[in-house]
Amino acid sequence: MPILTLRQLTAALFLGMFAMSWDYVSGYTGQLSFGHSMFFGIGGYTAAVLNLELGVSPLVGILIGTIFAGIAGLIVGYPALRLEGPYLGLITLIAPIVLVQIVNIFPNTLGGDAGLPSPAGLIPIEDTIGVLSTIGFESPFEQQTIIYYYVALLLFLAIYALFYVFTRSYIGSIFTAIHEDEDAVRSAGISVAKFKVFAFTMSGTVGGLAGAAFVHTPVGEPSVGELLYIVVSIEVVIVSILGGMGTITGPAVAGIAYYFVRDALQTSAVTIPLLDVTVGHISMVLFFALAMLVLFFLPKGALPWLEDLTHELNQRRTDQSEPTS
Question: What pTM was computed for the model?
């Protein structure tokens, strides 16, 4: 795989992590969060500021950023006890907008619109590594790309495994039941409030972890454009819906695919006939139009559609193999 593609894949893995953290709370419990970027931002900015201002090591900064994001998830989870649907969505939508304003109010500490300088890397790479040189990766750029790709991959797999285990357990069953019929869950003597707050807290914690680790890699920057802008939250929602809400696997894979499709559209120099503009110039318009088409034909998302298709094909194969009487 080309080294630049590997670098893109590293960034795509982080988008997959963001999408999984959203799907855990919104896809499973049905508690809509339209401002999930607040968790990535809190994790990322906390880790970056601690490293740049206080010299805290990246590992400790990531841990503290993760804890702060988890506390934010706990705080945001409480409105979910009284609000639901668009009202809860509005509360979550406002939170990252407020955070963007705070970043702009304190530009000397938080960098303002331009963002902060890159903090220290999670893994310091000062000299070339002999093992990587012997297998063909000789330049520091190549070695840095390889190392951070595997860091992102391990984190991606760990988060996927964590969410997979939780959503396939008793907790996941309760989440799904809350999504289907909250009153029925309550009538069964189960504390809906406890599970809602838990879902938001865990989702915020993992989102904050991904955001904090992201800014300590070469593919991420502590800036509002990469962590806090509302478009980041919208992208995560679209990715999760396209992949299949309430599946974890669908948003994880769709997040990676989305990154490459968006990048291909943004860098395309192909001129569109009649409009006389390049694809890259109107890439976001084309992408959202494409997303709307996919949602129109696959309203449940790509993964549920593939599962239904596979089940139908297997059923046909079974019917054909059975002898007719």
Answer: 0.86
Residue 97 structure tokens? 């907008």
Q: Which residue has the higher pLDDT, 141 or 239?
A: 239
Closest-CA residue to 237 (of 15, 14, 19): 19
Amino acid 303 reads L
SS percent in the chain: helix, strand, coil, step 5: 75, 0, 25
Q: Which residues contact 304 (CB under 8 A, 6 or more apart)?
A: 244, 247, 250
Give CA separation, 292 vs 26, 93, 122, 296, 298, in Å. Answer: 20, 21, 38, 6, 10
Residue 272: strand pairing partners: 277
Please report, for the chain, how many H helices and E strands are present, in that order: 17, 2
Closest CA to 140 of 155, 150, 152, 130: 130
What is the rounded CA–CA span in Å between residue 25 and residue 4?
A: 33
Distance, C-alpha 128 to centroid of its chain: 32
Tokens 């938001």 correspond to what residue?
Answer: 200
**pLDDT tens for each residue of 102-114:** 999 998 888 888 8
Q: Report residue 169: phi and psi, to 5°.
A: -105, -170
CA angle 50, 199, 303 (to 5 degrees): 105
In a 3-state reduction of DSSP, which class is residue 256?
Answer: helix
**C-beta of residue 7 within 8 angstroms of C-beta of residue 145:** yes
